[in-house]
Design a protein that fits this description.
This protein is of the alpha/beta class. 46% of the residues lie in helices and 15% in strands. The protein is built from 15 helices and 13 strands.
Length: 377
Amino acid sequence: MKVLFACGGTAGHINPALAVATELRQRVPECRILFAGNPDAMEATLVPRAGFDFAPFRSLGIQRRLTWRNIRYNCQSVCLLMTARRRAGRLLREFAPDVVFGTGSYISAPILLEAARQGIPCMTHEANALPGVSNRMVANKVDRFLLAVPEAEKRLPPRGDYIVTGNPVRPEVLAADREAARARLGVAPGQICLLSFGGSLGAQTVNEAVAELMAWHVPEGRLHHIHATGRYGVELLPRLLREKGVAYQNNPNLDIREYIHDMPDCLAASDLVIARAGAMTLAEITAVGRASVLIPSPNVAENHQYHNAMVLADHHAAVVIEEKDLTGEMLVKTVKELTEDPGRLRRLGRAAAELGVPNACRNITEELLKLYQSRKK
């Protein structure tokens, strides 16, 4: 059995594919797996690090904001698009996969379209509530179309056989022990643990609002707060805290870092999460059943994080604050109301858990294996 994974561009496209590939390798050890992705993007590092073979396939998206730099970028994108079918055909001939699996990035569309044209069984997975352009392009070409949430179907061409599988969640997130995690992180018994982050780069507006939040709760000492500043917030947040007179250094109730490397423990220990609304973040929040305040990033394609967040909000599983409305005062008010009402925190967490799909990775792998078996018949 040989499977080609076509994905790249963002962690939200790469990590689900890596999770499925890992599950597939465990279930079918003799399976040959190859990832196709952009040699200059993060998949070129993440895929080999996970122990999988990687084939470079150049493809670029389209920048919607028109600047001279973006115009040059888009010209390069069009040139690559014009040769994509020929290059995809060569890749498919050389590897000769039994199944092709895509995750909706600009890498996957040309490969899936060519696989469909050649009659190679192919499938794709949409992680977001608002499907991306690439997946909309292949919706009526692939053999199977998998969805993370049922809300995505109404924004796709009708085909009648969409399959809701959820988004893959790392096994270590599901296995983390709450009490052990709280002890490791120094959360006192009975203390409410707040976890906040705004992405690996860090969002200025989120860091500014979190600084106001810390200025409110640090003097009381009631909350244990873990916060990831992101790369651009490493200097910003401490400066804001100094300006507000917050004693943040050596404070046992503040855990401030650039990036969260132990997310399974942090999620397990938390009572309330403040985060963006990327598909993988929400998959993990719902898998562990945590209350959350979601601040969708407006700087993503087609504002898809807003649609992701609203799936939880519509099921009374999260509070959503759009970035244009975000202020420190609003965040303080929201967190104060939630942390002073443990019953509401529990209700939000239970509603989130009802949306979670802990077996999503297994579900997707099962669909892939079914597609392979159908070819053998």
